Amino acid sequence: MNVATASTTATLDLGVGGMTCASCVARVERAVRKLPGVQDASVNLATESLHLSYDGAEPDMELRARRAVRSAGYEPRSLQEQQSEAARQGPWTGFFPVAAGLLLSAPLVLPMFGDLFGRSWTLPAWLQFVLATPVQFILGARFYRAGWHAARALSGNMDLLVALGTSAGYGLSLWLWWSAPEGHAPHLYFEASAVVISLVLLGKWLEARARRQTTTAIRALHALRPDTVTLLTPDGEVQVPIAEIMVGDQLVVRPGERIPTDALVREGESQVDESMLTGEPLPVPRARGSSVTGGAINGEGRLVLEVSATGSETVLARIIRLVEDAQAAKAPIQRLVDKVSAVFVPVVLLIGLLTLLAWLWAGAGLETSLIHAVAVLVIACPCALGLATPAAVMAGTGVAARHGILIKDALALELAHRVATVAFDKTGTLTEGKPRVSAFVAAEGEDENALLAALASLQSGSEHPLARAVVRAARERGLQVAAPEAVRAVPGRGTEGRVQGHGYLIGSLRWMQELGLALGSLDERAQALQAQGATLSVMAERGANGLQARALLAFGDEAKPGARQALATLRARGLRSVMISGDNRGAAEAMARRLGLRPEEGEVLAEVLPGDKAAAIRRLQAGGQVVAMVGDGVNDAPALAAADVGMAMGNGTDVAMHAAGITLMRGDPALVAAALDISHRTVLKIRQNLFWAFIYNVAGIPLAALGYLSPVVAGAAMALSSVSVMANALLLRRWRPQGENQAPGAPY
């Protein structure tokens, strides 16, 4: 059970055992939504989980939710219990009832094969009774229990249909046997009821086995955390459980061992394999001062690490939560399916009754009429409907996580395939985000080093890439960086403050123009640098005579190695790419051309302030266009939230990652096309699954009602529908991003 509280709203996650079809989902949701304070309830059949949003002031919600689930006829349990149970299950877990049913049913089917060879292999009625009874009432007891709960709740589900259908066949066989004249051997239907139950059990076992395969991503992520670690103490190295580790502890990680938690390297150098987190197959170098992520594999060097995060605060724990939330989430299309499923079983019961009455009215005997009605009940079970969407979502999000794409929102997954325009932030997304000072021009008569030192002091407390570039340039010249005073950041414009008694401003050319600053002797050089595509900042001093321009800074940044190819791939898919930048138009267009974009076709939005990025996204959405936004910084968060699909670079900030529906764990723009591709393929699988789920019912019910399907064939078709839906969803596990021939080194 996971509980999280935000303001007055709290969430609760529970496992729910015993669900078999989409009607079960609807019944659990109805039962829980009746509880006081519940705002929303969503049940996922594939993950067998309940996600509940409720008023945080409501007491004992977990206890009341558990009681509601149990009163609906299902088994509430914590997610931890469910996960540990799933981890213990092997490939043949739960097969005994299936095997017993098949063994007991096999002799009952023999007469069918005898008829093919013109021989009578019919078993005595008493032997058929002995074989069918344990299948009906021992192996089939689960259907009676669940069907009874459904009937008490005045609803229906798969179990009720199976229980009614097989009981009718079994009861008819008893009546024909007991009412038959002495010496007459009537045709009995014990084999129909026993085989249907055995086939349904087989289908459910195959379905559960396939379901476990769709959750391999989650189980493999959990397995990345070692149970014990090597703690470095004053007395030497000690093996301790990972649960006892605290922030600030020093750990030893030997070559080949898995890094236990997020940490900083204090001693040693090594190559670290982070493929299970980022999908990047190549190891990355790590040395003193570098950060490492829990779950990664250490290469050839011994490392001493200082723990920076533990437990739920680690990157790995956040990734697990993102994937779990995505797999438990209900896609919008599933809500429509749930509405259909809510009325499906009552409608099927009515069709079954009408089938019985119609055949009786047509002159068929009770025996024939009842068998046709039984076939209708059996083939109509809505198992596959409940699995069609969540099975595809689970498989899609799992394989995406394997390749460094974390989809935390089922809505984003469903919308991404409709994206027509992809908007990219420039700095840190399409470019390296590590600008350098390419030119520093002091005004006439000014001391260049003194101004650069003052400027670096003013920028020393900022994390902005341009500020870091200024500090780096000053240190490369060996200049002393003093502590500034009264520093104030002006969002989207620049910074002002005092350094050693002087008031300075550093900011964009546009800001300085708004303040009425004249560049004077720097103006000609500014125009030349702008023409070359440089990003410009101006340093000014506020004195008795007002603002005076003191220096001009030009910044250069490099495009990411794969950015041009990534944009070309999107263009080849028929998508429009747009770069959004706060740079002056000359600098933005120069970088855009290097990336293969076409400024003359509106593929560059320049001089956009951070606060205006969301408005720019809304303009791109005009006319109903579905827009994706890709960014990495805090100032991208409003735009990521405003876009139909937000994609945050995993090398960016937590704020951006929270605002986005999709997180790209590598700062590689090529993952954008890959994310859109897996969305397209997942939605395609959802549609295919829904087609197969409906076609079994749409085609099968009329055929059964018209007498063309026996209950045995109907049972086989019903079981096959669930298995085919799960198998089709599992095909997504073979997906690879374009240009990748084999899976990365991730173990899941």
What would you note in describing this structure?
This protein is an alpha+beta fold and 748 residues long. 49% of the residues lie in helices and 19% in strands. Strands 15-27-26-25-16-23-24 form a 7-stranded mixed beta sheet, sandwiched between helices. Helix 5 runs antiparallel to helix 7 and helix 12 runs antiparallel to helix 14. The longest helix has 36 residues. The radius of gyration is 33 Å and the shape is elongated. The C terminus is likely disordered.
Quote the beta fraction. 15-25%
What is the rounded Rg?
A: 33 Å
Number of helices: 27
What is the percent of helical residues? Answer: 40-55%
Mean pLDDT: 83
What oligomeric assembly is this protein in? Answer: single chain
First-to-last CA distance = 24 Å
In total, how many beta strands?
27
What's the shape? elongated
- Secondary structure class reads alpha+beta
Please summarize the sheet with the most strands: 7 strands, mixed
In the sheet with the most strands, the strands line up as 15-27-26-25-16-23-24
Low-confidence stretches: 741-748
